[in-house]
Amino acid sequence: MGIFRYSYLFFIVVCAVLVLPPVHAQSCGCPAEYDWVFDVSPTQTWITVKVTLHHSSYDRQINFGNSWRFYFPSPNSVDSVAAYTADTNQTLNFRVEKNQTAVSISILFGGAKPDGFAFYVKWLDSEMPRIVGDQLEAEWTHPQRAFPAPHPETYHLWLPPGYSAPTVTSVPSSTPKTSTQDGRTYVSFSATGQSHTDFSWRLVAKQASQGTLGNILPISTLQQVLGGAATGASILLGWFIKTRKRRFLSGYLTRIDSTYNEYAVNREECKSRLEKMKEDVLQMLKKGKLDEAHFAILDGKITQYIKDLDKK
Predict the structure, then answer these.
(1) pTM of this structure
(2) Residue 242's pLDDT is what?
(3) DSSP letters of 132-189?
(4) How many domains does the chain have?
Protein backbone atom coordinates (compact mmCIF):
# COMPACT_ATOMS: atom_id res chain seq x y z
CA MET A 1 0.00 0.00 0.00
CA GLY A 2 2.89 2.37 0.75
CA ILE A 3 4.32 1.70 -2.71
CA PHE A 4 1.06 2.65 -4.40
CA ARG A 5 0.72 5.82 -2.36
CA TYR A 6 4.21 7.20 -2.89
CA SER A 7 4.41 6.07 -6.52
CA TYR A 8 1.16 7.87 -7.22
CA LEU A 9 2.27 11.09 -5.53
CA PHE A 10 5.67 11.00 -7.21
CA PHE A 11 4.05 10.40 -10.60
CA ILE A 12 1.83 13.45 -10.17
CA VAL A 13 4.78 15.65 -9.19
CA VAL A 14 7.01 14.50 -12.06
CA CYS A 15 4.27 15.03 -14.64
CA ALA A 16 3.75 18.57 -13.36
CA VAL A 17 7.36 19.38 -14.12
CA LEU A 18 6.78 18.86 -17.82
CA VAL A 19 3.17 20.01 -18.27
CA LEU A 20 2.34 23.64 -17.66
CA PRO A 21 -1.06 24.67 -16.31
CA PRO A 22 -3.21 26.85 -18.58
CA VAL A 23 -1.89 30.19 -17.40
CA HIS A 24 -3.73 33.48 -17.74
CA ALA A 25 -4.33 34.89 -21.22
CA GLN A 26 -6.53 37.83 -20.23
CA SER A 27 -4.92 41.25 -20.63
CA CYS A 28 -4.24 43.07 -17.38
CA GLY A 29 -4.05 46.51 -19.01
CA CYS A 30 -0.47 46.84 -17.73
CA PRO A 31 2.93 46.90 -19.49
CA ALA A 32 3.88 43.42 -18.29
CA GLU A 33 2.14 40.34 -16.86
CA TYR A 34 4.06 37.46 -15.28
CA ASP A 35 2.94 33.88 -14.60
CA TRP A 36 5.44 32.14 -12.31
CA VAL A 37 4.91 28.36 -12.31
CA PHE A 38 6.66 26.36 -9.57
CA ASP A 39 7.10 22.59 -10.00
CA VAL A 40 8.96 20.52 -7.44
CA SER A 41 10.01 16.89 -7.24
CA PRO A 42 12.21 14.98 -4.78
CA THR A 43 15.27 15.55 -6.98
CA GLN A 44 14.85 18.90 -8.73
CA THR A 45 12.85 22.11 -9.04
CA TRP A 46 11.73 23.75 -12.26
CA ILE A 47 10.58 27.35 -12.53
CA THR A 48 8.75 28.52 -15.64
CA VAL A 49 7.86 32.16 -16.17
CA LYS A 50 5.41 33.20 -18.85
CA VAL A 51 5.86 36.87 -19.73
CA THR A 52 3.06 38.70 -21.56
CA LEU A 53 3.94 42.17 -22.84
CA HIS A 54 1.38 44.93 -23.44
CA HIS A 55 1.74 48.27 -25.17
CA SER A 56 1.54 51.50 -23.22
CA SER A 57 2.29 55.12 -23.90
CA TYR A 58 5.58 55.16 -22.01
CA ASP A 59 7.09 51.67 -22.07
CA ARG A 60 6.98 50.77 -25.77
CA GLN A 61 10.77 50.88 -26.05
CA ILE A 62 11.27 48.90 -22.82
CA ASN A 63 8.86 46.10 -23.71
CA PHE A 64 9.40 45.88 -27.44
CA GLY A 65 13.06 46.60 -27.95
CA ASN A 66 15.66 43.92 -28.62
CA SER A 67 15.61 42.06 -25.32
CA TRP A 68 13.91 41.42 -21.98
CA ARG A 69 15.95 40.81 -18.84
CA PHE A 70 15.39 38.92 -15.57
CA TYR A 71 17.55 39.40 -12.48
CA PHE A 72 18.20 36.92 -9.66
CA PRO A 73 20.19 37.52 -6.47
CA SER A 74 21.82 34.06 -6.36
CA PRO A 75 24.34 33.58 -9.21
CA ASN A 76 24.70 29.81 -8.79
CA SER A 77 21.03 28.84 -8.50
CA VAL A 78 20.03 29.02 -12.19
CA ASP A 79 20.86 26.24 -14.68
CA SER A 80 19.55 24.58 -17.88
CA VAL A 81 17.82 27.70 -19.17
CA ALA A 82 15.40 27.49 -22.10
CA ALA A 83 13.30 30.20 -23.77
CA TYR A 84 10.56 29.88 -26.38
CA THR A 85 7.49 31.69 -27.68
CA ALA A 86 4.14 30.90 -26.07
CA ASP A 87 2.16 30.53 -29.30
CA THR A 88 4.47 28.40 -31.48
CA ASN A 89 7.12 27.06 -29.04
CA GLN A 90 9.79 28.64 -31.24
CA THR A 91 13.16 28.66 -29.48
CA LEU A 92 14.35 32.14 -28.53
CA ASN A 93 17.94 33.26 -28.17
CA PHE A 94 19.06 34.26 -24.71
CA ARG A 95 22.15 35.29 -22.78
CA VAL A 96 23.04 34.34 -19.20
CA GLU A 97 25.37 36.67 -17.33
CA LYS A 98 26.73 35.95 -13.85
CA ASN A 99 28.86 37.83 -11.38
CA GLN A 100 29.66 37.32 -7.70
CA THR A 101 26.32 38.61 -6.45
CA ALA A 102 23.68 38.06 -9.15
CA VAL A 103 22.71 36.43 -12.42
CA SER A 104 20.64 37.86 -15.27
CA ILE A 105 18.88 36.16 -18.18
CA SER A 106 18.40 38.33 -21.26
CA ILE A 107 15.80 37.08 -23.76
CA LEU A 108 16.73 38.27 -27.25
CA PHE A 109 13.53 38.36 -29.30
CA GLY A 110 14.51 41.41 -31.40
CA GLY A 111 12.38 44.12 -32.97
CA ALA A 112 8.78 45.20 -32.48
CA LYS A 113 6.20 42.65 -31.30
CA PRO A 114 2.39 42.86 -31.30
CA ASP A 115 0.44 43.71 -28.20
CA GLY A 116 0.05 40.60 -26.05
CA PHE A 117 3.30 38.99 -27.27
CA ALA A 118 4.16 36.21 -24.80
CA PHE A 119 7.11 33.91 -24.21
CA TYR A 120 8.31 31.33 -21.69
CA VAL A 121 11.58 31.20 -19.77
CA LYS A 122 12.28 27.92 -17.98
CA TRP A 123 15.17 26.84 -15.79
CA LEU A 124 16.32 24.47 -13.06
CA ASP A 125 16.65 26.30 -9.75
CA SER A 126 18.68 24.90 -6.88
CA GLU A 127 17.61 27.49 -4.28
CA MET A 128 13.99 28.47 -4.95
CA PRO A 129 11.42 27.60 -3.86
CA ARG A 130 12.55 26.27 -0.48
CA ILE A 131 10.63 23.37 1.07
CA VAL A 132 10.71 23.31 4.87
CA GLY A 133 8.48 20.56 6.27
CA ASP A 134 5.08 21.13 4.71
CA GLN A 135 5.82 24.79 3.89
CA LEU A 136 6.96 26.25 0.56
CA GLU A 137 8.78 29.60 0.45
CA ALA A 138 9.85 31.68 -2.55
CA GLU A 139 10.85 35.28 -3.08
CA TRP A 140 12.06 37.50 -5.89
CA THR A 141 13.52 41.01 -6.05
CA HIS A 142 13.85 43.13 -9.15
CA PRO A 143 16.66 45.65 -8.61
CA GLN A 144 16.38 49.35 -9.24
CA ARG A 145 15.27 50.33 -12.72
CA ALA A 146 14.85 53.69 -14.43
CA PHE A 147 11.30 54.30 -15.71
CA PRO A 148 9.97 57.46 -17.34
CA ALA A 149 6.73 56.92 -15.36
CA PRO A 150 5.27 54.55 -12.71
CA HIS A 151 5.37 51.01 -14.08
CA PRO A 152 2.36 48.78 -13.19
CA GLU A 153 2.86 45.01 -13.39
CA THR A 154 0.64 42.01 -12.64
CA TYR A 155 1.86 38.68 -11.20
CA HIS A 156 0.25 35.22 -11.03
CA LEU A 157 2.17 32.75 -8.83
CA TRP A 158 1.17 29.12 -9.52
CA LEU A 159 1.76 26.69 -6.66
CA PRO A 160 3.00 23.14 -7.21
CA PRO A 161 0.23 20.50 -7.23
CA GLY A 162 -0.77 19.64 -3.68
CA TYR A 163 -0.02 23.08 -2.22
CA SER A 164 -2.58 25.69 -1.14
CA ALA A 165 -3.27 28.53 1.35
CA PRO A 166 -0.78 30.95 -0.22
CA THR A 167 0.14 34.27 1.35
CA VAL A 168 2.02 36.99 -0.53
CA THR A 169 3.75 40.10 0.71
CA SER A 170 5.17 42.58 -1.78
CA VAL A 171 7.00 45.90 -1.87
CA PRO A 172 5.23 48.08 -2.96
CA SER A 173 2.32 46.50 -1.09
CA SER A 174 -0.65 44.97 -2.93
CA THR A 175 -3.84 43.01 -2.29
CA PRO A 176 -3.41 39.40 -3.48
CA LYS A 177 -6.31 37.25 -4.72
CA THR A 178 -6.25 33.44 -4.55
CA SER A 179 -7.91 31.34 -7.28
CA THR A 180 -7.96 27.74 -8.48
CA GLN A 181 -7.85 26.52 -12.06
CA ASP A 182 -7.87 22.88 -13.15
CA GLY A 183 -7.14 21.80 -9.59
CA ARG A 184 -4.10 24.05 -9.23
CA THR A 185 -3.96 27.05 -6.89
CA TYR A 186 -2.51 30.41 -7.91
CA VAL A 187 -2.37 33.84 -6.30
CA SER A 188 -2.58 37.10 -8.28
CA PHE A 189 -1.55 40.62 -7.37
CA SER A 190 -0.58 43.89 -9.04
CA ALA A 191 1.94 46.51 -8.06
CA THR A 192 3.35 49.69 -9.53
CA GLY A 193 7.11 49.96 -9.71
CA GLN A 194 8.68 53.36 -9.22
CA SER A 195 11.83 54.59 -10.91
CA HIS A 196 15.05 53.64 -9.06
CA THR A 197 13.12 51.58 -6.49
CA ASP A 198 13.45 47.84 -5.90
CA PHE A 199 10.34 45.71 -6.40
CA SER A 200 9.99 42.42 -4.49
CA TRP A 201 7.52 39.73 -3.47
CA ARG A 202 7.57 36.80 -1.05
CA LEU A 203 5.34 33.73 -1.31
CA VAL A 204 4.52 31.21 1.44
CA ALA A 205 2.22 28.20 0.91
CA LYS A 206 1.31 25.00 2.72
CA GLN A 207 1.23 21.43 1.45
CA ALA A 208 -2.29 20.06 1.73
CA SER A 209 -2.60 17.41 4.44
CA GLN A 210 -4.16 14.02 3.70
CA GLY A 211 -7.04 12.66 5.72
CA THR A 212 -6.70 9.32 7.53
CA LEU A 213 -8.97 6.41 8.38
CA GLY A 214 -8.83 5.74 12.11
CA ASN A 215 -5.57 7.72 12.29
CA ILE A 216 -3.86 4.76 10.66
CA LEU A 217 -4.57 4.46 6.95
CA PRO A 218 -4.58 7.57 4.70
CA ILE A 219 -7.86 7.87 2.84
CA SER A 220 -6.04 8.47 -0.45
CA THR A 221 -4.19 5.17 0.00
CA LEU A 222 -7.42 3.33 0.73
CA GLN A 223 -8.96 4.70 -2.46
CA GLN A 224 -5.97 3.59 -4.51
CA VAL A 225 -6.02 0.09 -3.03
CA LEU A 226 -9.72 -0.27 -3.81
CA GLY A 227 -9.00 0.88 -7.33
CA GLY A 228 -7.46 -2.51 -8.00
CA ALA A 229 -4.21 -3.82 -9.37
CA ALA A 230 -4.84 -2.39 -12.84
CA THR A 231 -4.85 1.17 -11.55
CA GLY A 232 -1.71 0.58 -9.52
CA ALA A 233 0.09 -0.94 -12.50
CA SER A 234 -0.88 2.03 -14.66
CA ILE A 235 0.50 4.48 -12.09
CA LEU A 236 3.77 2.60 -11.75
CA LEU A 237 4.19 2.37 -15.53
CA GLY A 238 3.68 6.11 -15.89
CA TRP A 239 6.14 6.76 -13.08
CA PHE A 240 8.84 4.63 -14.73
CA ILE A 241 8.32 6.34 -18.12
CA LYS A 242 8.61 9.83 -16.67
CA THR A 243 11.61 8.86 -14.56
CA ARG A 244 13.39 7.48 -17.63
CA LYS A 245 12.73 10.68 -19.59
CA ARG A 246 14.02 12.83 -16.74
CA ARG A 247 17.17 10.71 -16.48
CA PHE A 248 17.73 11.01 -20.24
CA LEU A 249 17.45 14.81 -20.05
CA SER A 250 19.90 14.98 -17.14
CA GLY A 251 22.33 12.65 -18.90
CA TYR A 252 22.24 14.56 -22.18
CA LEU A 253 22.76 17.88 -20.42
CA THR A 254 25.84 16.37 -18.76
CA ARG A 255 27.04 15.15 -22.16
CA ILE A 256 26.68 18.67 -23.62
CA ASP A 257 28.62 20.17 -20.71
CA SER A 258 31.35 17.55 -21.02
CA THR A 259 31.73 18.13 -24.77
CA TYR A 260 32.12 21.86 -24.29
CA ASN A 261 34.55 21.55 -21.38
CA GLU A 262 36.71 18.98 -23.18
CA TYR A 263 36.92 20.59 -26.62
CA ALA A 264 36.52 24.32 -25.90
CA VAL A 265 40.27 24.87 -26.43
CA ASN A 266 39.75 23.80 -30.05
CA ARG A 267 36.93 26.11 -31.08
CA GLU A 268 36.19 24.59 -34.50
CA GLU A 269 36.23 20.99 -33.23
CA CYS A 270 34.02 21.90 -30.29
CA LYS A 271 31.60 23.83 -32.49
CA SER A 272 31.37 20.92 -34.94
CA ARG A 273 30.55 18.46 -32.17
CA LEU A 274 27.95 20.77 -30.65
CA GLU A 275 26.29 21.34 -34.03
CA LYS A 276 26.14 17.56 -34.52
CA MET A 277 24.44 17.24 -31.12
CA LYS A 278 22.05 20.05 -32.07
CA GLU A 279 21.02 18.10 -35.18
CA ASP A 280 20.69 14.89 -33.16
CA VAL A 281 18.21 16.41 -30.69
CA LEU A 282 16.22 17.88 -33.59
CA GLN A 283 15.94 14.42 -35.17
CA MET A 284 14.87 12.94 -31.84
CA LEU A 285 12.11 15.56 -31.66
CA LYS A 286 10.93 14.76 -35.20
CA LYS A 287 10.84 11.02 -34.43
CA GLY A 288 8.87 11.54 -31.22
CA LYS A 289 11.71 10.35 -28.99
CA LEU A 290 11.93 13.79 -27.34
CA ASP A 291 9.09 16.07 -26.24
CA GLU A 292 9.08 19.79 -27.03
CA ALA A 293 9.87 20.90 -23.49
CA HIS A 294 13.01 18.73 -23.30
CA PHE A 295 14.00 19.74 -26.85
CA ALA A 296 13.81 23.42 -25.92
CA ILE A 297 16.07 22.87 -22.91
CA LEU A 298 18.70 20.85 -24.82
CA ASP A 299 18.64 23.07 -27.90
CA GLY A 300 18.94 26.19 -25.76
CA LYS A 301 21.92 24.79 -23.88
CA ILE A 302 23.76 23.86 -27.10
CA THR A 303 22.94 27.19 -28.74
CA GLN A 304 24.36 29.10 -25.77
CA TYR A 305 27.64 27.16 -25.89
CA ILE A 306 27.98 27.77 -29.64
CA LYS A 307 27.50 31.49 -29.05
CA ASP A 308 30.13 31.41 -26.31
CA LEU A 309 32.56 29.83 -28.78
CA ASP A 310 31.85 32.49 -31.42
CA LYS A 311 32.81 35.18 -28.90
CA LYS A 312 36.26 33.68 -28.34
Answers:
(1) 0.58
(2) 62
(3) ETTEEEEEEEE-----SS-EEEEEEEEPPTTEEEEEEEEES----EEEEETTEEEEEE
(4) 2
